[in-house]
Every structure is written in structure tokens, then in C-alpha cells.
């Protein structure tokens, strides 16, 4: 019972920071609305003079782009304002408290991420329902496509969790890495297809991204949703996503053990 209570408290850390700050929630709603409107307008404008580009119709491209914006809300909570990022904890020396709590730091991090994703899921589902009702995005082609998409999205978020964990674990091995974190986050968004579908990039770029886990986080599930990846090919993509989950889980577990040896108080 105590473990469940500790887990619940850890999971609601960052969401509570949002819920207790109404202006921040208003800003999120405004930013999300503007992003959806601008992205939908941009892709509609790009397809104004053409029917199909890079194998995508206008409605497919708009659906992909808008859902990428909504999916970005799953892990986009403002941890920095609450001084709850690993980078801040390392800088101020408060990371040591992660090792003094009843929960191991690995479990605390996982539970906190779970709470963030569930909170972000509420935003994403709300936005999806509004966009679907307004005709901004298309519904899935069939119930089977919807089911495979949900499974792929779950695996994608699992991969994304380990990718973001790996970036945070980098903080244990560097003193000042703000710029490196920004560069890595930008690379993750670019290679996962957040900014634009990967099919619009050169062949060498697509080939390179195929050897990295980033496209498994978002590009694959959204490609299944819009029909770019057929159901007959989805099984192989799901297997690749599952393989990345296993590889990254083993890697981050190994890094956690090494990171514990480097915990020191800096500043504060």
C-alpha cells in the first residue's frame, strides 16, 4: 500500500504543477490551438497547386502534421518552471534526494514520466476529438488500422520515454550541457518526423534515420494512421519498435548503474 501511495505521488508531480497554475494551462491551450491552425493552413497551402506529393495527398499530409502537433503534447510539460528537470537537479545538487527517497531513482523517473504522459494524453485526446469533429483530420481507414495505430503509438511512446531518459542521463556525465540537450532534442524532433514527414527528405536522410530509434517514436504510428504504411507491412514496423524498446531498456538500465557512481552536489 505504501509503495502504491509513493508511486501515485511521484506520478502526479509535474501534472500538479500545471493544474495549480491556470495561466500556464491557458498558455498551453492557446499555443496548441495556434500550432494546429498554422500547421493545417501551411500544409493546405503547400498542396494548393498539386494533388499528391511524396506519396501523400493533401488530407493525409494535413492529418499527419496536425496529429504530430497533438502527439507532441504527450511529453511537453514545463518541467523547467518547476525546477524539476534532471539538468536543474544536477546543477543545484538536489539530484542527491532522488537517492534518499523510498523509491529508487529509476522507478521515480518512470512514474513521473507516466504521470506526464497520462496528463499529456488528456490534452492530445481532447485536441484530436475537436480536430476530428471539425474535419481538420481524417478518421482512421478502418477499425483494424485504428487498433494497430494505438499499439504502434504505445510502443512509440515507450521508445520516446527511453530516448528522453537517455538524454537526461547525459546530464550525469557532463557539467554544463544546456546546448547539447537543445541540439539533441531538436535532432529527436527532426528525425522522428515532428516537423515534417520523413518522406519529404532526401534518400540518404531517410536511410540514416532508419538506423536510429527516433522514427519509431512518431513517424511509424502516424504513417500507419494515414495509410502510408499498409497493414500488411505494419507487423515488421511493430517488431522494430519492440526491438528498440528492449535495446534502449537494457542500455538505460546499464547507464543508471554508472550514473549512481557520479552523483555529486554542484552549486546550491
UniProtKB/TrEMBL annotation:
The keyword Membrane applies. It holds the Pfam family ABC2_membrane_6. It comes from the Bacteria. Keywords: Membrane, Transmembrane, Transmembrane helix. The keyword Membrane applies. The chain crosses the membrane at residues 118-137, 143-167, 179-198, 238-256. PANTHER family: SLR1174 PROTEIN, SLR1174 PROTEIN-RELATED. This is ABC transporter permease.
Amino acid at each position: 500500500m505504501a509503495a502504491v501511495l509513493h508511486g501515485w505521488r511521484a506520478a502526479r508531480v509535474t501534472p500538479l504543477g500545471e493544474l495549480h497554475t491556470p495561466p500556464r494551462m491557458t498558455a498551453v491551450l492557446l499555443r496548441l490551438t495556434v500550432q494546429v491552425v498554422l500547421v493545417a493552413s501551411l500544409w493546405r497551402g503547400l498542396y494548393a497547386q498539386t494533388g499528391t506529393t511524396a506519396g501523400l495527398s493533401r488530407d493525409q499530409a494535413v492529418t499527419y502534421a496536425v496529429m504530430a502537433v497533438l502527439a507532441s503534447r504527450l511529453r511537453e510539460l514545463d518541467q523547467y518552471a518547476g525546477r524539476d528537470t534532471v539538468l536543474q537537479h544536477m546543477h543545484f545538487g538536489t539530484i542527491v534526494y532522488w537517492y534518499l527517497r523510498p523509491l529508487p531513482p529509476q522507478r521515480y523517473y518512470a512514474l513521473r514520466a507516466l504521470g506526464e504522459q497520462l496528463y499529456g494524453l488528456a490534452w492530445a485526446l481532447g485536441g484530436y476529438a475537436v480536430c476530428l469533429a471539425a474535419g481538420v483530420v481524417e478518421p482512421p481507414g478502418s477499425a483494424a488500422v485504428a487498433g494497430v495505430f494505438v499499439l504502434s503509438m504505445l510502443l512509440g511512446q515507450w521508445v520516446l520515454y527511453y530516448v528522453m531518459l537517455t538524454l537526461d542521463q547525459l546530464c550525469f556525465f557532463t557539467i554544463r550541457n544546456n546546448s547539447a540537450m537543445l541540439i539533441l532534442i531538436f535532432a529527436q524532433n527532426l528525425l522522428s518526423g515532428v516537423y515534417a514527414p520523413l518522406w519529404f527528405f532526401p534518400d540518404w536522410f531517410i536511410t540514416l534515420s532508419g538506423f536510429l530509434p527516433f522514427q519509431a517514436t512518431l513517424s511509424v504510428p502516424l504513417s500507419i494512421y494515414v495509410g502510408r504504411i499498409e497493414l500488411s507491412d505494419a507487423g515488421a514496423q511493430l517488431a522494430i519498435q519492440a526491438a528498440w524498446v528492449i535495446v534502449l531498456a537494457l542500455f538505460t538500465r546499464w547507464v543508471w548503474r554508472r550514473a549512481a557512481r557520479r552523483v555529486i552536489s554542484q552549486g546550491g
